[in-house]
Amino acid sequence: MKFGKEFKKQMVPEWSEAYMDYNGLKRILRELREYKQSKQHPAVTSFRDFEQKLLPDGTLNGGG
Questions:
Q1: Residue 64, pLDDT score
Q2: Which InterPro entries does its entry note (predicted)?
Q3: What pLDDT is attached to residue 12?
Q4: Whether the Cβ atoms of residue 4 and residue 26 lie closer than 8 Å to each other
Q5: CB within 8 A of 44, min separation 6: which ones?
Q6: What's the CA gap between 2 and 58, in Å, rounded?
Q7: pLDDT tens per residue across span 6-48
Q8: Rama region for 62: left / alpha / beta (φ>0; ψ in -120 to 50; rest)
Q9: Phi-psi domain of 22 (left: phi exceeds 0; alpha: psi -120 through 50; beta: other)
Q10: Residue 46 to residues 24, 27, 43: CA-CA distances in angstroms?
């Protein structure tokens, strides 16, 4: 079983607001890898941009 599916399966509903968006993190890491390989402008240009992409509500816990 892939990690993402196992991660989702093991989630505790009461803690759902505290979980990181795993698929969002994978997407950002893929964009960064593609940037490094292509030397184009990254989709994420700062930590704040990274934080906003990963946690759309701008919080560290992803809740909202």
A1: 41
A2: SPX_dom
A3: 93
A4: yes
A5: 28, 31, 32, 50, 53
A6: 28
A7: 988 999 999 888 888 888 888 888 988 888 888 766 566 666 6
A8: left
A9: alpha
A10: 16, 16, 9
Token representation of residue 64? 């909202």
Q: Which amino acid is at 21?
A: D
Q: What is the pLDDT of residue 43?
A: 61
Q: Which tokens is 11 given? A: 């989630």
- Whole-number Å distance between alpha carbons of 7 and 24: 14
With a cut of 80, say whether residue 5 has pLDDT above it.
yes
What does the block give as tokens for 37?
């390989």
Tell me how long the chain is.
Answer: 64
